[in-house]
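Render this sequence as a predicted structure.
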Amino acid sequence: MRILYIDLNNSGISGDMFLAALLGIVPEPENILKDLRNLKDYLPGVSQLIIDLKKISISGIQLNQLKIEIKENKDHRSAKTLKDSLNKYLNENFFSDSAKNYANQVLNSLIQAEAEVHGELANKVHLHELSSIDTLIDILGVTIALDKINSFDKNFQFYCSKIPLGGGKVNTAHGLLTIPAPATLKILEKSNLITFGGPIESELVTPTGIALLTGLNPEFLEYPPEMMIKKSVYSTGQKKFKDFQNILRLFFGEYNDLEIIKSTHPMQKYVEKVSILETDVDDVSGEILGNFINEFKNEKVLDLQITPSLTKKNRPSYIIKVLCYPKYKFELMEKIIHELGTLGVRYSIMNRLCVDRIIEKRSITINNKDYNVNFKVSYIELENSKEIVNIKPEYEDIKKISKDSGFPVRKIQFIIQAKIKQLFY
């Protein structure tokens, strides 16, 4: 399994930044630039096109940066003109079918986003900034580079960090607009990418950059995944900021075990990332611990354990362990510190396998009276069927029936368990 992890924490993304980084991974990048210079002959109105890959230094780090010089007249270009030029280039040069589909998907997402923003039909929309040849340079350059490293193969996986969007306002053909640009937001709406505002007041994500990224359907990971790193590349865009490095990083590598799991085992789809938060306390009362449990009964906490232990000074203590999704870890660690007064919380992120489950309501007759009981049905979804793992009645419903009927909880459990086959099979 080959892997590309796209680290945008200190950059955001634009088309030229992504292309500049990918050119650091592919063999013979100059050949790609040579092919891209021929785009001048595919789009009407272009009189000059110069594309070069430069090496610059920021904070002592050597970076890739594209230098593009364009002379063109783009005033009357339509979405159709851009699509025709894109497909003419794709058809007259060697691209895989998957690469052709990706390039068209990216351009179509840009056109559709503009159409939705302006309330127009996609084939009637005027693209303004996006009608420039640099849109085609970004899309086709990234497509060529990805095709060169066989990234459209099924044994290739993309991962991506969270993405800073920037802030403030930007000048466009439609006037002064708030960042992120409307087209960027429309594309993000249809993605699973994790974003955040800031950390500076400038545009850090362009519509073309986010369209290229969304088209790859990357999985979100806060940190790079397990892999053998074969190459790491740094790139930057045209903008320079005083308090923001604007450095995009790519990690290109392999993980052989992942290839076996992903290609052969149906349980792989149930793997997800979780965070384990852990601390030790030896100076809190039982009342505080009881209140702590009550405070952590919410949807952000997947599980909670409190285990008695002894410290190195032979003092009785408790190990507090909280399971949650990674996006909630800092919020919950802050709450742990405030609730327990602990000075520190350990945390780690790991994989877990968690099968599907649904809640189904059934009616049970006990002592000539009908009761509604919620059952948690866990199952594994196979290719053509569902395999039930367990069926469990909700304990709170059992307690209510016990209180109403006068039967012990244990007896209610026996009665319901005996009827599960009749109710579900």
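Summary. The chain has three domains: 2-264, 268-353, 358-424. The first helix runs from residue 15 to 22.
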